[in-house]
Specification:
disordered N terminus, two-stranded antiparallel sheet, 76% helix, mainly alpha, 575 residues, two-stranded antiparallel ribbon
């Protein structure tokens, strides 16, 4: 049983990167041998590139890392950065599927896993980067394994939470009629996951993967350029290249790095994200055919003789006999117990660190948390006002999607903190205080979460519902309230949750900014955490993080979890 109706895929006359791409697609369909040549060439190039990257793991750890600013080294550095990003994404994908399914299918585990997920995404990643690097380097003192693992883990921690939220919420809004159908056909747990729940997560997961990958570049750039005192922990990559170019004042090298970053983003969009977006459209829940965008590389994959032979040769796997496995509920309870035991151990350790904090310090931190919370709320309101209509406008138009989605991905992937010095100069010139400016700085990185989730919701909107709205000749305002907003609301909630977590994280760099030997700061929990880290005041740092965690948990139970449940009951496609 396949619960999804697959519309016919039409050839698009416009693609962002090539003129006359529809002619190339027609050529590809007529010459499958050409598809095999392209795939073989790409596979060989990636194979030797990854061999070169993984060889770095075995090389000895260097006391001083030399970064050559010659443009000839940029392709190598760019590939290394891409490799770290992709490995972090693979880990994030595995984690998000396991965590999302676990939370969605076990109500007892959900009460612990979802607040914990919100807490994890709100903890400042940069706060524990020095400790993570030192720990892994100590575990692997004679090779680069520790440094490379630290970079991959940093990418993972910046991607996984957003993707896990999207998986969890997509499973929770599976239409009831399809659940009933799976029950009538007596689908096993594995069959239900494979034919119903996993397909229902695809669209949201693909779009959140794009957003997560975009957000991960900033943390990778920081990690590749990391130095601690007189110790050099830099990694060959775009981050270290840009850092050395900035410190040397080499404007041309900085421009080369920016161009290389844009080329990398465009490459991944053409060969990874665009094909995935096209493929994901077949999982739209609808009863009528629809017109989708197309992708040159997607058609190359679809018409490759080699890949088709491989798919046929492994088709027998789907016909293997079903095996009996232990009850998923029992396994879930065991893992939940181990997870809670780990959390309890961590809380005991933290209690020992903060026992010296006085009452007046706690009151001060609560006041700082309120100030940061006010900025987070302002950030979400402004982000919603911008991203909700913009996401619907772009997502509901095939032509606008084809033209603007690559630009949106480039804008989201560009590290916002690189623009902070320019923004500080702009604030000084216009007389904008940092109280207002910090909200703008936080918004620069968090609005993308809302935008990408609204885009995913608009893409997943069933065409038959849009046709009904057109048949009844609903006005634009009526379509928004009766169709568009209800259809994207579950995705919008996910965007708000991840944007809120991103805003708390962004407060670390938005409330405390160092520029040309000057410190610009505003009162808030983010600046308190940053000051504690700068002064190496561990008890104060732990206490600040604990206050942030408590605030996030309260918001999760009182706001986000209720919105999740409301969207499941009110806006699920149970028709």
């Amino acid at each position: 049983m396949r619960p999804y109706a697959h519309g016919k895929v039409h050839i698009s006359p416009i693609l962002p990167y090539f003129k006359g791409t529809h002619r190339l697609i027609s050529f590809v369909k007529r010459h499958p041998f050409f598809c095999d040549l392209v795939l073989i060439f790409l596979a060989v190039g990636l194979f030797f590139g990854f061999i070169s990257y993984f060889y770095r793991f075995l090389q000895p750890l260097e006391a001083q890392v030399e970064i050559d600013l010659s443009p000839l080294y940029l392709p190598k550095y760019t590939f290394f950065s891409m490799s770290r990003g992709l490995l972090g994404y693979i880990l994030s994908l595995i984690f998000s599927l396991l965590w999302g399914f676990w939370a969605a299918k076990d109500r007892l585990a959900e009460r612990a896993l979802i607040p914990l997920l919100d807490v994890l995404q709100s903890i400042p990643i940069l706060g524990f980067m020095p400790g993570l690097v030192l720990l892994l380097v100590a575990l692997f003192p004679n090779s680069n394994v520790g440094l490379e693992l630290a970079a991959i883990i940093m990418i993972f921690t910046s991607q996984a939470w957003n993707m896990a939220f999207s998986v969890y919420h997509s499973i929770r809004i599976v239409p009831q009629d399809k659940i009933d159908c799976a029950t009538v056909y007596r689908l096993s747990n594995w069959q239900r996951i494979r034919w119903l729940e996993l397909p229902y997560t695809i669209i949201s997961l693909v779009w959140n993967s794009i957003m997560s990958m975009a957000g991960g570049w900033f943390f990778l750039m920081v990690n590749e350029a990391f130095q601690l005192g007189d110790r050099d922990f830099r990694l060959p990559g775009l981050g270290s290249y840009m850092s050395v170019a900035a410190s040397d004042g080499n404007i041309f090298a900085m421009i080369y790095a920016i161009i290389a970053m844009i080329v990398l983003i465009v490459f991944l969009d053409a060969f990874l994200w665009k094909p995935l977006v096209v493929w994901s459209q077949k999982f739209r829940v609808e009863e009528t055919g629809s017109t989708y965008m197309d992708s040159l590389f997607f058609q190359i994959i679809a018409h490759s003789l080699i890949l088709n032979k491989i798919k046929q040769s492994i088709h027998f796997v789907s016909h293997l006999k079903q095996r009996k496995y232990p009850s998923p509920l029992i396994i879930s309870r065991i893992f939940l117990f181990l997870l809670l035991a780990l959390i309890a151990t961590a809380l005991i350790f933290l209690t020992r660190k903060i026992i010296a904090i006085q009452l007046d310090q706690w009151i001060h931190l609560i006041h700082m948390a309120f100030l940061t919370f006010s900025r987070v709320v302002c950030c979400l309101i402004i982000g919603t006002a911008i991203a909700l209509p913009l996401g619907l406008w772009i997502g509901l138009s095939d032509s606008l999607s084809k033209k603007l989605e690559p630009l949106i991905q480039i804008g989201a992937s560009f590290p916002a903190t690189l623009l902070f010095p320019m923004m500080i100069l702009l604030f000084q010139y216009t007389g904008i205080s940092l109280n207002i400016g910090s909200v703008i700085l936080m918004l620069m990185g968090t609005q993308w979460y809302i935008l990408f989730n609204v885009l995913a919701g608009a893409k997943a909107m069933p065409s038959d519902l849009k046709e009904v709205a057109a048949a009844f000749q609903l006005k634009k305002w009526q379509r928004f309230w009766r169709l568009h907003f209800p259809a994207v609301f579950p995705y919008f909630v996910t965007g708000l949750v991840t944007a809120a977590g991103g805003a708390w994280n962004a407060s670390i760099v938005a409330e405390y900014i160092s520029y040309k030997d000057r410190i610009f700061t505003v009162p808030g929990l983010g600046s308190a955490i940053n000051l504690s880290a700068q002064n190496r005041d561990i008890p104060q740092l732990v206490a600040s993080l604990l206050v942030m965690v408590v605030v996030v948990v309260i918001l999760n139970y009182q706001v986000w979890l209720r919105l999740y449940h409301y969207s499941e009951k009110r806006f699920s496609l149970n028709y």
